[in-house]
Amino acid sequence: MTILTSRQIEFVRLLMLENEYRPIRYFTTPLKTSDKTLQKDLKIIEKYLEKFEIELDAKPGSGILLNKSTKNHRLLLNDLQFKESDVKKFSINERRFEIIKILLSVSNMETSIQKLSDKYYVSKASIANDLKYVEDWINKFELTLCKTISGTKVVGQEVNIRKAIAALVQDYSNTEDKKIQMQKLSFRLDISTLKGLQELFDNEKILYVSSLIENLEKQYSYQMGDPYYINLLSHILISLKRGAEGKLIENFTIDNYQLIKSDKSYEAARWLVSQINQFYNIELPESEVYYVYQYFITSGFQEKLAEFQIVDKGLYNNSASDITKSLISYMCSIINKDLLIDETILDGLVLHIRPMLNRLNYNIQIRNPLLSEIIEQYNESLNICKAAVLLLVNERKLKNISLDEIGYLTMYFQAALERTTLKRRIIVVCQSGYGTSQLLVTKLKKAFPQWEIVDVLSARKLKERDMKDIDLVISTVHLDISEKPYILVSAFLSEKDIDNISRLMKEDTFIKTNDDIRIHFINDILQEGCIFFNYSSQKVMSSLSDGNTTNYKFEEICFGANVKVYICFCSNEKSMILSLNDKEDNKREISFYLTMNDSNLILNILTEIYHLYQNEHSMYYLKRCNKVRDVKNYFALNKGERDVKTMDLAAVIRSETIKLEMNARNKDEAIRELTQMLYDADKIANMEDFIEDVYYREKIGVTGIGNGFAIPHGKSKFVKKTCLAIGRTKCPIEWDSLDDQPVNFIILFAVTDEDKTSNHIRLLSQVATKLGDDEICERLKLANTSNEIYNIFAGNGN
């Protein structure tokens, strides 16, 4: 019997349509192949046509033509129709899945590239690429491809072949192919998963094994979670198929057999295997019972079995609880919230982590069907949880925990965060009178009963209130506050207001603030030579490995779309690289690379990075930095070690920040020229952001005080040390002034956050006193040197 590929079937159809001789190259375009390939196809086609008594006539110089009678023509069409229905067109991924399936299912037999090329209607080069993909895929299971002249086959231990088959079923369950319709569906399996199983196993076996598992669940009044159910079902089907073929797990020893054989979960596993042996008249050995038992104890199933005694009792009962508390503690440190007081998260995570530890111990992987939705909706929580897990694995020397497992842990974490979010302490700000404010409070309590309304204040009183114990401010008027987030609502709290608040609470479990932050650890570790602009990951890796034999393996943590942390646990290093990269959408990505092994240090740095990410003002500043010095200055500025002292004018005036022949021709040029002096004198960390803060103050009120003088203010966290920049322009420039006159003498205040209250007022008062004296003003206008200006302001020139 001659087997035709899809291309060869199509070739015959094209030949049947022709009534005159055609050269072979005539068919190369519609068939998308070469003359040489079609020459080979013709030899197979000629042999196929023999049973229909149809000859393929070749005329030199003219081409080829089918000689056919009407009767035989019809028989040929019918046969082609039948063959075509039996030939499936595959996508690249589907074809590779099929090749893996073939190689694993008949692992003791060889297949050739030519056979696969003919079967899937693709070139041998494509099949060669497919086999490279297959080899990479099976290497994960410690399997290899043995390639000889006679063909290719999979080589490896039977237990690893089974693991690969199980993973293949899971991978296939994610495909989007919906063409095959299932006649019977188990309510526990979605159609794509069932389809993947049916590609490898008989439908009858799937339903029978499924019924056995469900009988056990009914017997013990316990229903497994779907991922565990799918894993167990897949494993048993693999055991059944491979056992029936005589391919059993060899050299398999069971530790502590005498102890575990009396466990209820082991008895349940033995019952299940015995039912399969009896029904299918096969003999699966005790090693298969033990393998099923492993799945039971890694799914949490054993917790529902009466008085059973687990082998790894110390790990199960003691370590699970300690590990859970450590994990929660890491997460709490990063987000700066206490979740350990929430008994729900502790109890829930312990119940999940106990079987998870057993899964790690037995190297059993589970698939999380909700992972894509978790990544989409709770990506920040997922990455915080991933960071905590990485620290946990490093500290406790655990096996790697997969992202699927981390996805499940994230759901407990997210639920706890949302419970915490519901319990908010609120201040209400309302200017419309007592009656209106009480109505607003009543409506808020009705809409959000979990909230605690701590106080009702005016905007003026709010400035005097310490808000450390407050989570949120609800206001009917616009507020200029940065300490806490606030939401603007109408005085009567409309339905739209309630919807907006609810949406904000749902979307912003982690509310970004402009609270001040302190960056001790980043500042200590990060060196100027390790700050790069527009350095790709490859460049960073290259700079790390230069002259170093260490094999760096980084784990990625993403705080939002544009803040990333790459962690490599290296025992002999303690370093950090910062890369700021411009993106196509005019945004900037900030990436930290940590190479160290100290879990506590990594935790502290992660915490600082996360709070840096949460602080909108800080992120805005960092994303605008274009110089290494600006970045380093920012971290140094926020390390939290400055002393706040009272000061006078003599302490904040320097000759290098005085200029008597300014080039500025307008207000903006004047502010920039004075700011440049401050930056050059290393008094501010970044020019553009300082200027932005100066203009923010300009919007609040007039800074031209008359008589040709202006005193613009820059109260900014980008000021490293409070100081003044003093300048005199060559000609008067336009400025918003109290006397509506231009100015030519400008005193720019650069004030730190620590000095923005008492010290700022003190300095302003001293300057005002000086400028209130007409004689001093005249002397300032006529001064010829920076020293004269300094002496006038410092008091020595009075």
What does the model show?
It is a single chain. With 798 residues, this protein is of the alpha/beta class. Among the domains are: 6-85, Arc Repressor Mutant, subunit A, CATH 1.10.10; 314-348 and 377-420, no CATH class; 423-507, Rossmann fold; 520-637, Mannitol-specific EII, Chain A (3-Layer(aba) Sandwich), CATH 3.40.930.10; 649-794, 3-Layer(aba) Sandwich (Mannitol-specific EII, Chain A). The protein is built from 33 helices and 19 strands. The strands form 5 sheets. Strands 14, 15, 16, 17, 18 and 19 form a 6-stranded mixed β-sheet that branches. A 5-stranded mixed β-sheet has the order 9-12-13-11-10, with helices on one face. A hairpin with a 4-residue loop joins strand 10 and strand 11 (563-569). Helix 15 (313-335) packs across helix 18 (379-396). The termini are far apart.
The fraction of residues in strands falls at 5-15%
Shape: elongated
> Which blocks of ≥5 consecutive residues have pLDDT under 50?
174-186, 306-317, 641-646
Spatial extent as radius of gyration: 38 Å
CATH topology of the domain at 649-794: Mannitol-specific EII, Chain A
Q: What value does the average pLDDT take?
A: 79
SS-based class: alpha/beta
How many helical stretches? 33
Measured as a percent range, the helix fraction is: 40-55%
**CATH-level-2 architecture of the domain at 649-794:** 3-Layer(aba) Sandwich
Terminus-to-terminus distance: 115 Å
Biggest sheet features: 6 strands, mixed
CATH class of the domain at 649-794: Alpha Beta
Task: Compute the number of strand runs.
Answer: 19
Q: Supply the CATH superfamily name of the domain at 649-794.
A: Mannitol-specific EII, Chain A
